[in-house]
Amino acid sequence: RPQDPVLQDGVFCYNTFMIKLQNVSKQYVPKEYALKSVSLSIDAGDFVSIVGQSGSGKTTLAKMLFAEEFPTKGKVVIGDWDISKIRQSEIPTLRRQIGVVFQDFKLLQRKTAYENIAFALQVAGEKKSRINEIVPQVLKIVGLSGKEKRYPYQLSGGEQQRVSIARALVHRPKILVADEPTGNLDTIHSHEIIDLLKRINDFGTTIVLVTHDRDIVNALKRRVVTISEGEIVSDVKHGKYVLS
After folding, report:
1. Is 119:135 a contact under the CB 8 Å cutoff?
2. Angle at 216 between CA 210 and CA 222, to 5 degrees
3. Which residues pair with 236 in a beta bridge?
């Protein structure tokens, strides 16, 4: 396995994980495909927006990156892992290399911000001393120092999403998959979250952003991969959201 990234001055450094999809198809029922012969390469450190209308296959593609879905045909390679052949025992190790952020935050309502983040380390068997070292670091990265004792209901939607991002960062992931991370946020908080993702990307973490937010995508001016009916119809280095 490649060397783990190092936390330096509050940021994560070092990334050699490349993402490759080779002729990937995903079939749920006969003659119905979520993805059809999709080929895509994402370099380490890239920032890619995956866009498409509801049902286009973009979320299926995202789920393959953290082994929640598997291809019916083709090959998905994440770093040294072939997702189509990965062993069940290897999936937890893979997922520690890939942070995931969801639209609905998925926070534990009876735990504080600190406890929500710490819990992700506890279930991985980290020592208390290590947890006490990492949690304040990631809280600082996402701009929530001083709010670690607040419960989710005491935080704004944008702050809750920052806790979710902090939780995704605790294992020092080389890739961060953000599936509609601004879907439940207003415009101001949405741009704050995207600015945070850009800063994390600047430190070397690959960002895969799945979104339908036209304004966010157009403001980013980063690579845009457009999916329609399970197929990639556009892949532009400095693209825009072109779907009607």
Report:
1. no
2. 75
3. 224
Residue given tokens 């989710």 in the structure block: 152
Averaged pLDDT of the chain: 90
On whether the CB atoms of residues 153 and 111 are closer than 8 A, the answer is no
**Which single residue is written with the structure tokens 């396995």?**
1
Q: Pick the closest to residue 173 from 59, 17, 69 (CA basis).
A: 17
**Across residues 60-69, what is the average pLDDT?**
93
Q: Give the other-Cβ count within 10 Å of 188's Cβ.
A: 9
Which pTM does this prediction carry? Answer: 0.89
Count CB atoms within 10 A of the CB of residue 198. 13
Q: How far apart are CA 98 and CA 157, in angstroms?
A: 23
| CA–CA dist 172, 38 (Å, integer) | 28
CB 141 within 8 A of CB 168: no
24 forms beta bridges with 38
Average pLDDT, integer, range 173-185: 93
Q: How far is the C-alpha of 148 from the C-alpha of 142, rounded, in Å? A: 11
Counting every residue, how long is the chain?
Answer: 244
Distance, in Å, from the CA atom of 83 to the CA atom of 71, rounded to the nearest integer, reads 8
Q: Is 165 helix (H, G, I), strand (E, B) or coil?
A: helix
